[in-house]
Amino acid sequence: MTLEADADFRLGVKWPAFWRYLDLLPDTQFLVCLRDPVETVASFKNSGARLAEGLDYDAAFNREMNAYLVETTRDVELRRVLLYEYINSRILAEIDRPNVLVVRYERWFQDANGLLSEISDFLRTPFSSWPVRIRPPDSSDSGLSARELGLIREHCRSGVALGYQSMS
Prior knowledge:
Radius of gyration: 17 Å
């Protein structure tokens, strides 16, 4: 099977697990979306299905990670936290690559125009507007229990390393 695309073709995928492709596609530009651990774990919890169980999609791509998470704990609250940490600890090792631009989810609501300008510069593609509308979370309350917040503080070391000071 061959995939053909125009030279100016751009594909955007918001899927954190794509960090696995960085070594395989060294000439590809990656926008790596980061998000606060508390907001991410709350999103997992509220999403339903596998993410609520602390597992990613049941695909060959995720089998090793999901197996690790299942073997590590039966505690669903802890597993959601470990899912964040598994992915983001690996992303952390890759964000200084020249073909990676870190896009902080929260920045869409604080400085969307500045972020869009940085993305345009990075991709060498002018964007005067963004074809997607990103809405902020409905509430500032994460809906996580004190135990869940404690698990995040204890296990999400990558959160602090990625600049999320709420973790310290």
